[in-house]
Amino acid sequence: MKNELQFTYPLYVDVSMCSTDGAITPTGYQRMVVETIGKHLENIELDSTRLVPEFGVAWVLLSMSIELKRTVRVGEKITMKTWHSDSKAPAYRRDFMILDEAGETAAVGATFSALIDMNTHRLMMDKTFLSRFDLAEGEKLLAADKRFQERYEYAAVEERLVRPSFIDGLGHVNNERYGEFVYDALTKEERSNIGSLKRMDIYFKAELTEGECFRMERAENGNAVILRGVHAADGREAFIVKLTF
I want to staple 238 with a disulfide (CB 3.0 to 4.6 A). Which of 48, 116, 124, 229 is the partner? Predict the structure, then answer.
């Protein structure tokens, strides 16, 4: 198995990932991390394009946490490293580090992912099968979890409809769309302050499907704004995002 730390990935931040103030939006951070990890999985031969035809499984993101040491802005030369850091079936934890041009740490984070059976669209739970994808465990850079444990009283913001363009090749809403839903649900003042974001935690709980209505709700706790999408039909949580400023 290849040494994961031998790989370093340049990150390109373009204006589509930023607010009008030049600060990276929640979707921008998601894109940087998810696309880079996708490239990394290709390099270590564990990407979904290999796993689907060979094993009938694909990676799905359960959660992502990123802690910002300083603001990253458009035009900066930054790089990222990522490595496997824990396996507790069915979830695999992967940590990452974003470095600036001087080699200083700009952000650290972690993702939790699982393998989904493409025939049943259920998480693969067979520990014997999952063990073949275990890797050497590296350093954990921050406290993170695959589940959101906190409880809040939420207020409704708006209702939205899942459009066909939201659906990706795996048949569910692409994870980057959730960052867009969250950004739209922020107040104007919060959007203008997105450059002061200190941490983002995003949790994926239940699939949203094409044509389905969902409701955006929000709560506040000190310097944090907590936003969630719930299925309009039955109130089930689809996703939760906590933004800490």
Answer: 229
| Domain residue ranges in the chain | 4-131, 155-244
d(CA 80, CA 108): 9
User: Given this structure, which CATH class describes domain 4-131?
Assistant: alpha beta
Residues lower than pLDDT 50 in the chain: none
Same topology between domain 4-131 and domain 155-244: yes
CATH code: domain 155-244 is 3.10.129.10
pLDDT 10s digits, 43-59: 999 999 999 999 999 99
Query: What is the reported pLDDT for 123?
Result: 93
Supply the DSSP string of the chain, one letter for each residue.
Answer: ---GGG--EEE---GGGB-TTSBBPHHHHHHHHHHHHHHHHHHTT--HHHHHHHHSEEEEEEEEEEEESS--BTT--EEEEEEEEEEETTEEEEEEEEE-TTS-EEEEEEEEEEEEETTTTEE---HHHHHTT--------S---SS-------EEEEEEE--GGGB-TTSSB-HHHHHHHHHHHS-HHHHHTGGG--EEEEEE-S---TT-EEEEEEEEETTEEEEEEEETTT--EEEEEEEE-
Q: What is residue 21's predicted lDDT score, i.e. its pLDDT?
A: 86
